[in-house]
Design a protein that fits this description.
Blueprint (H helix, E strand, L loop, with lengths): L10 E5 L3 H14 L3 E5 L2 H8 L6 E5 L7 H11 L4 E6 L4 H9 L5 E4 L4 H41 L19
Parallel strand pairs: 1-2, 1-3, 3-4, 4-5
C-alpha cells in the first residue's frame, strides 16, 4: 500500500506480518517527517513491490512466517544494493542482528519494543546515508561522462588534453 503524500525526505518500506506493528511504525515515522511510507505484510510482497517502487530504506521484522527478516534483507541487498536495510527484532534475535551488521548486510537493528525517538534518529541517519550514496553515484557518473567526452575530443583533436607548462607551472598556450 502506498501513502498518498509526496515524499520530500525519502521513501520507507515497512515489512511486518503484524498489522498493529506496521501501524505503530507508520505513526512514529509520520510524526518525524514527510516520508512516503509503503507497507507490506510479508517478504514476498515486499520483493514484488521493490521491482516497481523506488525505496530508500527498508525496515523489516525478523520473525515472519514465509521468510525470516534477515534472509529477506539479504535478498534486498542482492537485488537492490542501494536500499538501506534495518532489521526489527525481538530480544532473542539480537545475535542475528549483530551478525547482520558485522557482515555489512544491515545498516542497523531496532529491538522490539522500540523507542520512537531512536527509530526516528536511525531512519533520519539512514535517509542521510542513502542521499549521500545517490549523490556519490551521480558524481561518479558525471566524471565517467566527462572522461568519455575528453576521449572523444582527444581522438578528434590529438593532443588537446595535454597541458604544457613552463618551469614555473604557468600554462603555455602557444610556443
Amino acid at each position: 500500500m502506498k501513502d498518498d503524500g509526496t515524499a520530500k525526505q525519502g521513501t520507507i518500506l515497512l515489512v511486518d506480518d503484524e498489522d498493529n506493528v506496521l501501524r505503530a511504525l507508520e505513526r512514529s515515522l509520520h510524526r518525524a517527517g514527510d516520508y512516503a511510507i509503503l507497507k507490506c505484510s510479508g517478504a514476498r510482497e515486499a520483493l514484488t513491490l521493490l521491482k516497481t517502487e523506488r525505496v530508500d530504506v527498508v525496515i523489516s521484522d525478523h520473525l515472519m512466517p514465509e521468510m525470516k527478516g534477515m534472509d529477506f534483507l539479504v535478498e534486498v541487498r542482492k537485488r537492490h544494493p542501494d536500499v538501506i536495510r534495518i532489521l526489527l527484532t525481538g530480544h532473542a534475535d539480537v545475535e542475528v542482528a549483530i551478525a547482520g551488521i558485522n557482515s555489512g548486510k544491515l545498516f542497523r537493528f531496532l529491538q522490539k519494543p522500540w523507542d520512537d525517538d531512536e527509530l526516528r534518529r536511525i531512519v533520519a541517519k539512514a535517509l542521510e546515508v542513502s542521499k549521500l550514496q545517490h549523490g556519490s553515484r551521480a558524481f561518479v557518473e558525471d566524471v565517467k561522462n566527462q572522461e568519455e567526452y575528453k576521449s572523444r575530443l582527444e581522438s578528434k583533436y590529438p593532443g588537446i588534453s595535454k597541458v604544457k607548462r613552463d618551469k614555473d607551472g604557468t600554462i603555455i598556450i602557444d610556443e
